[in-house]
Amino acid sequence: MRRKIAISAALLIAVLAIGGGLAATHRFPFERSAPPQPDAIPTVPVVAGVVAQHDVPIYLTGVGTVIAYNTVVVHSQIQGQILSINFTEGQSVHAGDLLAQIDPSPYQAQLDQVTATRDRDQAQLVNAQANLARYTQLGEKGWATPQLVDTQTAQVAQLKAAIKADEALIEAAKVQLGYTRLTSPIDGVTGIRQVDVGNIIHPTDPNGLVVVTQIEPISLIFTLPETVLPQIQQQQRKTKGPLTVLAYSQDNTIKLDEGTLGLVNNQILQTTGSIQLKANFRNKTHLLWPGELVNARLLLDTRHDGLTVPASVVQQGPKGAYAYVINADNTVEIRPVTVAQISDGQALIDSGLKANEQVVVDGQYKLQPGTQITILHGQAAEEAAAQSRQQAPIP
Questions:
Q1: pTM, to two decimals
Q2: Options 2.60.40.420, 2.40.50.100, 2.30.42.10, 2.40.30.170; which CATH number does 59-69+213-304 get?
């Protein structure tokens, strides 16, 4: 009996095992697992731009120093005590404006003295002329000798000469009196006052009263490499008027003024291999200041239908400059480029790109040739550009 039970249990276990195997190999359709999907190709988000075509100015850039058109140290031509200061430091003044008053009393007294001397000589001349007239009449009648007439004639001439000398002394005294008014010789801006009220000013004082600097107009002296001199000379012969010069702040963010080229210096600086140029500006806004260090841009020419891209498009590699160009299937390729100049955040392309092509502006540091990209727009593009600048490796 026990043997029969054991055989039945073994048969049951075998049947269950065979059924489990069949179930594993023959599942129902709704129980079958889906076939594995291929992994999605990752894309890199970038900010894109378009190659623009328009007229592009060609500049020669250099560094220069602003100099005053005229600078005058106001000296006194006489000695005297300062009675009043009639300007404020940093004030704009015009030619002839009173800057200071020197005590005029000694010079007024001198003028009064020479004026009185002239009046006395004039009175004596009137008397001498009257005597000459009488002696002449007497001489005609034989009652006066010719010697007396000649003597009186000489006295009249002497008094006339004395009056001329008196007039000259009067003019000299007036000039000295005029020097008691210290006036500005030019239009400009006053500097720091060097003499206070009550002090004695002298013609030999080295610092004078004040320095007046003319800043309208104003000049800029800047340098360029001597190799560009033939280009400048050629453009000067080609252009009827003077070449245009732009003045920018040291960080190139603020346009200070626009002027004209005054001259190219007549000698090349052998020590630096550069040439000096001088430009003049109207400076109505007073953004140019004497002694200021600025960037100068000499407008050499204008390239018609030039190709430009944002400066961040141009990357530097072992073989030179290149840019990532976006293909029609949203992949990128590396394109070598030649850059003519970079100005105001725009790069002028000589070769390597075509008008209206799409290029990568931000996000290049994650790219390789053939990389699939996603073009961002609007705020996403701005955020990606900011993040790209933060994560980009430092060159």
A1: 0.68
A2: 2.40.30.170
